[in-house]
Design goal:
The complex is a heterodimer of chains A (227) and B (577).
Chain A: H1 2-6, E1 33-37, E2 44-54, H2 61-64, H3 77-85, E3 109-113, H4 126-134, E4 138-141, H5 146-155, E5 159-162, H6 167-170, E6 176-181, E7 186-190, E8 195-199, H7 205-211, H8 214-220
Parallel strand pairs in A: 2-3, 3-4, 4-5
Antiparallel strand pairs in A: 1-2, 2-6, 6-7, 7-8
Helix pairs in contact in A: 3-4, 7-8
Chain B: E1 4-5, H1 8-11, H2 16-35, E2 58-59, E3 68-70, E4 83-85, E5 94-99, H3 108-117, E6 126-127, H4 128-142, H5 152-155, H6 164-172, E7 183-187, E8 190-193, H7 198-209, E9 221-223, H8 234-250, E10 254-255, H9 274-280, E11 289-292, E12 306-309, H10 312-321, E13 323-327, E14 331-337, H11 346-357, E15 366-370, H12 372-375, H13 379-387, E16 396-398, H14 403-409, E17 430-435, E18 442-444, H15 452-462, E19 470-473, H16 477-485, H17 496-503, E20 532-535, E21 551-555, H18 557-566, H19 573-576
Parallel strand pairs in B: 1-6, 2-17, 3-18, 5-19, 5-20, 8-9, 8-11, 9-10, 11-12, 14-15, 14-17, 15-16, 20-21
Antiparallel strand pairs in B: 3-4, 7-13, 18-21
Helix pairs in contact in B: 7-10, 11-13, 15-17, 15-18
The chains are: A alpha/beta (227), B alpha/beta (577).
């Protein structure tokens, strides 16, 4: 911590962030989502890489997927795709850079960065599904509303990761970022600004996500018969 | 009239046994007064009734200046969460929408009196705490004590104190002990779904369990179409058709179908808003586990049960197994004492609480509501309280079951149920105390309702006409019938509907979720323009009621009605006092 603080001269915003590496980070892993096993520790690292889209606090499910589109049934493949094309459509017009470009059905942003209480409001599973269907692999927020977090885990649509500080003040829409989820520690690397941020461990949800959602987890643990 | 007033935090600190003894004692006195004969036996073990609590509490003083606005659910001003005095008025056009969840039943004054006599009066009389020992002694000499049979899980015979939420989850997971944070597999008593999430939940159920799979229990799945009903949107209509086919195929016992969209009254099975329908149809029972694919499923906590919202995938899992892995939440306890001023409604109470703890103040937590004020509330008011638990991020809300609960359930369910209560030694994450007699009306700035009777009372008192379009949406068929049939006290026999008509309101709409959430564009009272709306609903994020630049102010029916008369957000005391 002391070492990090000593090298944090370029980092003026907040002491809440632990600066892991003050040097610009250039390591780019090509696949959007990859899982690699490092030879030395035999630990699994899941990596996401892409452009980030930055939003503020209290992004509720109406902003993620407006109630108008809830007639779409996520378990129907065609309608799943359609849901994706409406992801984050409810953001106010103050968000001048839109999450999905006009005429597109997918987003070019694969990582969403938010503030407090991301996904609050309705229990609609359409919310994480819409994000997942639009091409989002992970959300990084300061905190989550309970049901959104749970739905993300249960569906396996997006990884709901928690940051240790307000990354929504640190990153800008369009920054190139990489997320590395390790067994012992996870981090977000912002290649555009050259900064790294520690992410909180995924905790209890880890085993469920790792198994591939609640059904896979239940089969693995013998709750329901395996197929 | 004899009535008791206890310090409710002490009451809820009692063990189940002591509490039950107290209940029996009250029933006994009630009967004795009615019949003039003292003959009932009482349990002898009342020793821990007198147990004093030294629990640390946090006193929260209520705000004191005029009508308040808080941006508790404010997402347009994204990051703010401050209280501000109402600046006199809010300019612009104001719509008033009552997506009512309840109407005061005709019997409500009766219930209040009955219940008032038992544990739940707001009438000051004498302290049970100081007098009960004497009274008990006297009665014990009349008759020998009698023990009724109780299962261990309800008698508080566990080693460590549990909150009522912990106790319900322990029982449902067949454990005797658990701690907050633990993940447990819980047996589900009722799974509710509706037209928005039902088709998806069943889609997942079929995908995971097979095309020919059957639900775990056809009598425990309750399906209530209510969201997008009176619309020409084809996909919305199709979703109700999907539900109908599934219910036929699975032989689902409780499906509240609607086929004739032109006239809701032609559909005797159709109810309306699921949370109210669940209660009115007797699916809410103390001590049980109720899950639903709707975040406001927490409303059912009013019945002293564990109720929370889940997503489609979790619901698909429950459909196949009847179980779900749930994390045990720690409990925040809200002690609300004091007589409610007559210009306040339950909506004001929960808005006050959310204002205090913020929109994420209860994330992952249970919210337990106790105190003399809560005890004096009707079931409908308790539902209003629990309905908005999720707006503070809460997992569930609970009100301990009492005579008000039992009375409500009398003609609604024949199934046995076992209420549970928090132990005296239960550990609460935090306790908040409110003196409700000092509370003021609130509105939540941009970020259900109650009680048409309340709105009618304001219109009646003012004798004026509304100045802005005023929409009324009854929650269920029953509420609709009540609006057209129950006389409003003090009106000379007029019904709510007559008063609304005289005041110039829109004709009450077909019961459904309506514009509480902005569904298809032809949804009744949907905000298709960036307007300003005062609503008795429960959520006001940007775009919630349609247009994403629209502004929604949440308020009690009194405040909403007063505002519709002036065209500005208005303190109802202007009309009521």
């Amino acid at each position: 911590m002391a070492a990090a603080a000593a090298t944090a001269t370029t980092f003026s915003e907040s002491s809440a962030f632990k600066l892991l590496n003050p040097q610009p980070h250039h390591r780019i892993t090509s696949p959007l989502r990859s899982t690699t096993t490092t030879p030395d520790a035999a630990s699994t690292v899941t990596t996401f890489h892409g452009l980030c889209y930055v939003v503020c606090d209290n992004i509720d499910t109406d902003q993620i997927i407006h109630a108008e589109y809830l007639t779409l049934v996520p378990s129907n493949p065609d309608e799943y795709e359609k849901l994706g094309s409406y992801a984050l459509i409810g953001l106010p017009s103050s968000y001048e850079t839109r999450f999905i470009d006009p005429g597109e059905t997918k987003s070019k942003y694969s990582i969403v960065i938010g503030g407090d209480n991301f996904g609050c409001g309705s229990s609609r599973e359409h919310a994480p599904v819409a994000l997942g269907a639009s091409g989002v692999a992970a959300v990084v927020a300061e905190s989550y509303a309970r049901i959104f977090f749970r739905n993300s885990v249960a569906t396996g649509e997006v990884y709901p990761l928690e940051s240790e500080g307000r990354l929504c003040n640190e990153c800008k829409t369009g920054d190139v970022v990489t997320i590395e989820i390790g067994e012992s520690d996870s981090k977000l690397i912002n290649h555009t600004s050259g900064k790294e941020y520690k992410l909180k461990p995924i905790g209890d949800a880890g085993p469920v996500i790792e198994a591939g959602g609640i059904f896979a987890y239940a089969r693995k643990t013998g709750m329901i018969p395996s197929r | 009239m004899v009535s008791f007033k206890e310090e409710s935090n002490k009451l809820s600190n009692f063990s189940d046994f002591a509490r039950k003894a107290l209940e029996e004692f009250k029933t006994f006195v009630q009967e004795a007064i009615n019949t003039d004969v003292f003959t009932l036996a009482l349990p002898s073990d009342t020793s821990n009734v007198a147990e004093e609590s030294s629990r640390h509490t946090t006193l929260i003083s209520t705000s004191s200046s005029g009508l308040l606005i808080f941006s508790g659910l404010d997402s347009i001003n994204h990051c703010s969460n401050t209280f501000a005095p109402l600046p006199g008025s809010v300019p612009g056009r104001i719509q008033f929408i009552m997506a009512s969840s309840t109407i005061i039943p005709s019997s409500s004054p009766l219930i209040k009196k009955d219940v008032g006599f038992s544990a739940f009066s707001s009438q000051p009389s004498f302290y049970i705490q100081s007098s009960k020992k004497r009274v008990f002694k006297k009665i014990a000499s009349v008759m020998a004590p009698q023990q009724s049979e109780r299962k261990p899980s309800t008698t508080g015979s566990v080693k460590t104190g549990l909150t009522m939420t912990e106790k319900m989850l322990a029982r449902a997971s067949e454990k005797t002990q658990l701690v907050p944070g633990e993940n447990v597999w819980v047996n589900v008593d009722i799974l509710m779904t509706h037209d928005v999430c039902g088709p998806g939940a069943f889609g997942i159920f079929k995908k995971e369990f097979g095309e020919n799979a059957k639900v775990w229990d056809r009598e425990k799945v309750v399906i209530i179409p209510d969201h997008y009903i009176f619309t020409t949107d084809e996909r919305a209509n199709r979703n109700v058709d999907i539900l109908r086919n599934i219910c036929t195929e699975q032989n689902i016992k409780y499906f509240y179908d609607i086929k004739d969209l032109g006239n809701f009254k032609a559909n005797p099975d159709y109810k309306g808003v699921c949370h109210v329908a669940l209660a009115q149809e007797g699916h809410c029972r103390p001590g049980e586990i109720l899950l639903g694919t709707d975040s406001h499923t927490c409303t059912a906590g009013a019945f002293g049960q564990f109720a929370t919202g889940i997503g489609n995938t979790d619901a698909g899992f429950v459909l196949g197994t009847g179980k779900l892995l749930l994390k045990v939440p720690p409990t925040l306890r809200f002690v609300m004492d004091g007589e409610m001023p007559e210009y306040l409604l339950a909506k004001d109470l929960i808005l006050q609480i959310i204002g205090e703890i913020s929109v994420a103040g209860a994330t992952y937590k249970a919210m337990e509501f106790v105190g003399t004020t809560v005890e004096s509330l009707t079931m409908e008011e308790r539902m209003t309280l629990c309905n908005m638990v999720v707006e503070a991020g809460g997992k569930n809300g609970v009100v301990p079951a009492d005579n008000t609960t039992y009375k409500y359930l009398e003609d609604k369910t024949t199934l046995p149920y076992e209420p549970v209560y928090s132990d005296g030694q239960a550990r609460f994450l935090q306790e908040y105390k409110f003196d409700i007699s000092k509370l003021e009306p609130l509105v939540a700035k941009v970020s259900d309702a109650k009680d048409f009777m309340a709105a009618a009372k304001v219109f009646l008192a003012s004798g004026k006409k509304v100045k802005v379009p005023t929409f009324l949406v009854p929650a269920t068929q029953k509420v609709w019938i009540d609006i057209y049939s129950l006389p409003v006290p003090g009106s000379g026999g007029k019904t709510c509907s007559q008063i609304f008509e005289e005041a110039g309101c829109d004709t009450p709409a077909s019961p459904s979720c309506g514009a509480c959430l902005g569904g298809p564009r032809d949804t009744y009272a949907r905000m298709n323009e960036p307007q300003v709306c005062v609503s008795t609903t429960n959520r006001n994020f940007p775009g919630r009621m349609g247009h994403k630049e629209g502004q929604i102010y949440l308020a009690s029916p009194y405040t909403a009605a007063a505002s519709s008369l002036t065209g500005f957000v208005t303190d109802p005391r202007e009309f009521l006092l």
